Structures are given as C-alpha cells and as structure tokens.
Amino acid sequence: MDGALNKNEPVFACSGKTAEEEKWQQDLPSAVKCLEKSIEACLTFFICPEEEWISLRTTNIIERLNKEFKRRVKPMEIVARENACYMLLAFISL
Q1: How far is 30 from 23, CA to CA, in rounded Å?
Q2: If pLDDT is split at 50, 70 and 90, which confidence band does 40 have?
Q3: Which whole number is the average pLDDT over 61-73?
Q4: Is 3 in contact with 47 (CB distance < 8 Å)?
Q5: d(Cα 45, Cα 11) in Å, to the nearest integer?
Q6: What is the mean pLDDT of the chain?
Q7: What DSSP designation does 47 have?
Q8: Helical spans, DSSP H, in the chain
C-alpha cells in the first residue's frame, strides 16, 4: 500500500446529490442511506495501485451472492417490497 488512509481526509468527496442518488432515493431510501454512511469505506481501495483494485474491492463470496440473487430475481416480474429483497438476500446468505 502506498500510504495509510487518514480518517480525517475523505477518499471521495462529492458536493450535493447526483441524479442517480435522487432516483435511488425514491426507490430504495434505506440503501441510499446505508451507502451514504459507508461510501468512504467502500472506496478506500482507490488509495492502492490500480492493478490491485479488482482483488481489493471484490470477493468470491460477494460475487456469488450477487450472482445467486440475480438468478432468483430474474424470473420474477416484480419484487413485492424492499423488505422482500432483504429477506431473499438473507435466505440466500444462509
């Protein structure tokens, strides 16, 4: 690692809300709130060399969970509620 992350310096600074954030705020407000709280932790891999980014930001467990979630949701025309998504993720995670 080239340098240590200083907790007082944000890795990613953004002023104001983006159009994507506004869109997702309407659809999944709890997901936007969660991301707002942890955006710096999610982006800390940027302090490392670019060739290491993929291995740092992903893991096989997360990729497998995403793939399984997409496989199960794809045949559904709609997912009832946000809570239904959370329940499905919890079921898959077990």
Answers
A1: 13
A2: confident
A3: 83
A4: yes
A5: 9
A6: 75
A7: G
A8: 19-27, 29-42, 53-57, 60-73, 82-93
